[in-house]
Specification:
The complex is a heterodimer of chains A (259) and B (351). In chain A, 80% of the residues lie in helices and 0% in strands. Chain A is an all-alpha fold and 259 residues long. In chain B, strands 5, 6, 7, 8, 9 and 10 form a six-stranded mixed beta sheet that branches.
Chain lengths: 259, 351
């Protein structure tokens, strides 16, 4: 009995720590006063203002576009890389894995500045394209990291059997290997998507004039204080993610019941 | 191997082509502006585009320090930037700025003489910069929570306000307060003076409720502290929200900061940049920006146009520099100087 009370207390504390900041932000998004120190009454005006602010909406669009393209491309490149790494000898496999892990451990600012210098030396024009290139670059290691374990668990003989039974390599891959590693690919995709979504430092150094993502937009508002429209937008994003998660978690549960 | 290389490089070139084109050019070219976030009334940008036919590409940054490496590396060439005093000096020192041809900026006559004088601390001949916004650093206090009138930095060391004091959490601002208290220049590199300032800051530490940056604003409005070190631009805003607040420039002198327009050396559209700066110096435009940002404008024509008499005559927004002694502006101290300040500040914070 005592144990369950402690358990409940513990889990409550965790939820408070996790969600108190988000709740504060959601409450503030309905605050009519611009400062957090005063409650000026309930209002929806920040939500209205948000949808009339072209800069913020453009930044939101850029963020989603970049995250989507970067995660799709890096998932494809990362998965293909995994196949290649699997077929390497043990020693070189270890080396390659080590090399792909370095960018993840590297400080973001180092990655950001070195990418910027690289783009300058190539003479690229800074804009959406350079942000995309850099996001794809830093997302690939995360995809490899989540696909690789799945690859290892797989039974290599099933693929060979498929080839023996007359399947071509590509057909064999999609019929036998791909379904097996799919969960790894999906989690790699999601990881890349979230990494790209909230990256600030690398984006700051590789973006061109006049191109903003949400994170760079929010950072620039620091000097004058963050505008309540941003609270409103964050609330909408949070609720969207929450609904999506609830939806995703419901679907497998129903499947299990049918079994 | 060669084939592989092709596969890797093709998409890269493809993307670079994508990024290369797709730039629409307006009839009179464009001007690329790099400014602080939320530091301009967006309406003035559209007005500029309408009147001149020059397209404005607008970009923002959050601190001088994140802006500098981008400009220095030349990642994207900007035409107009708006850094603060000491950063302008650093950019001049490192040969990043172009001289502004003041013949192309007739509206500079609107900029008050005292601000151009003050600018000479970082731009000795007024050759590289045109002031855009300025302000002072002072003490914001809550009339209901203090007993005596306040006019000195010393109040921040007064024990009766223990746990009721908000200090700035940035090296130069914190040391400015301590150096001024001790009667030294805030740009000093004298070891003994800096040690004295450091000891003052350590002595003050138990009295401080919190070291903060922009939270001063909200905390003072919410009556959470009695005294805070704040930028004058924020002071007017906090007074509007909480009428018990009062702002004062301490008698020992303080920091006058100035953010000015500059043109970098590698600016692709220098003529348009000068047109842009001239436009920003126009009285009605400067007024619009003042009302949007609420930071003081050095534009006397705009000051005349302000309708609200209280603000127009406000000693907070538009102090007469000649009435105060020891007003200074931050100077760039070189990388050794920065390192010295930082290590002393670390000693204060870790004490």
């Amino acid at each position: 009995m005592k144990k369950t009370i402690l358990q409940k207390l513990y889990i409550t504390l965790i939820f408070i720590f996790l969600y108190a900041p988000i709740t504060t932000l959601i409450v503030l998004s309905f605050n009519a006063s611009k400062t957090r120190a005063k409650w000026g009454g309930f209002t929806l005006k920040w939500y209205g203002a948000l949808f009339q602010n072209r800069d913020i909406l453009q930044a939101l669009f850029n963020t989603l576009l970049i995250a989507l393209i970067a995660s799709v491309v890096s998932t494809i490149i990362g998965t293909v890389a995994c196949i290649a790494i699997m077929s390497l000898k043990k020693r070189s496999r270890a080396i390659v894995m080590g090399v792909t892990n370095i960018p993840m451990l590297n400080a973001e600012i180092v990655t950001g500045i070195s990418l910027m210098l690289l783009f300058i030396s190539f003479g690229l024009r800074f804009g959406l394209g350079t942000i995309l290139l850099s996001h794809i670059t830093f997302c690939i290691p995360y995809v490899i990291l989540s696909v690789m374990p799945r690859m290892r668990q797989m039974n290599p003989y099933t693929y060979e059997a498929a080839l023996d039974l007359g399947a071509g390599p590509v057909y064999g891959f999609f019929k036998v290997v791909f379904p097996d590693i799919l969960p790894g690919v999906l989690s790699g995709f999601l990881m890349a998507f979230t990494m790209s979504l909230d990256d600030f430092i690398i984006t700051h150094f590789t973006k061109g004039a006049g191109v903003d993502t949400l994170s760079t937009k929010i950072y620039t508002e620091v000097k004058k204080g963050i505008k309540p429209e941003m609270y409103a937008l964050s609330t909408i994003i949070f609720l969207t993610v929450l609904v999506l998660l609830l939806f995703i978690n419901r679907v497998p549960a129903e499947k299990d019941l049918k079994k | 191997m060669k084939k592989l290389l092709c596969f890797v490089l093709l998409p890269v070139f493809g993307l670079s082509l994508l990024t290369g084109c797709g730039k629409s050019s307006a009839e009179n070219g464009e001007v690329i502006v790099y400014n602080w976030g939320e530091y301009i009334d967006p309406e003035t940008l559209s007005l500029f585009e309408e009147e001149t036919g020059i397209k404005v590409v607008y970009d923002e940054y959050d601190t001088n320090e994140t802006m500098y490496p981008k400009v220095e590396a030349g990642a994207s060439a900007y035409d107009v930037i708006c850094p603060s005093d000491y950063m302008i000096q650093k950019m001049i020192d490192n040969d990043l700025l172009a001289e502004i041809n003041l013949d192309n900026i007739p509206n500079i006559k609107n900029i008050g003489q005292q601000y151009l004088e003050q600018s000479k601390e970082f731009d000795p001949e007024n050759k590289y910069s045109v002031p855009y916004c300025f302000g002072t650093v002072g003490i914001l206090y809550n009339k209901t929570m203090v007993s005596d009138p306040i006019d000195s930095w010393a109040v921040l060391w007064d024990e009766q306000y223990a746990d009721n004091i908000l200090m700035q959490d940035s090296v130069r601002d914190a040391f400015m307060v301590a150096l001024k208290l001790n009667g030294y220049s805030m740009n000093t590199l004298n070891e003994a003076e800096l040690q004295a300032a450091k000891n003052s800051l350590i002595e003050q530490k138990p009295l401080v409720q919190a070291y903060v940056i922009d939270q001063v604003r909200d905390k003072m409005i919410g009556d959470e502290a009695a005294i805070g070190v704040i930028y004058s631009g924020e002071a007017i805003y906090t007074q509007r929200e909480n009428e018990n607040l009062e702002y004062v420039i301490p008698k020992e002198g303080t920091n006058v900061w100035i953010d000015s327009w500059v043109i970098p050396k590698n600016a692709p559209n220098k003529e348009n940049a000068e047109k842009f700066i001239d436009f920003m110096c126009r009285g009605d435009i400067a007024l619009k920006n003042f009302e949007y940002i609420t930071y003081s404008t050095p534009n006397t024509a705009a000051q005349e146009l302000i309708e609200d008499e209280d603000i127009k005559n406000s000693k907070i927004a538009f102090p007469d520099f000649s009435q105060y002694e020891n007003l200074e502006t931050f100077q760039y101290l070189g990388s050794d100087g920065d390192a010295l300040y930082n290590s002393l500040w670390k000693e204060v914070k870790s004490e």
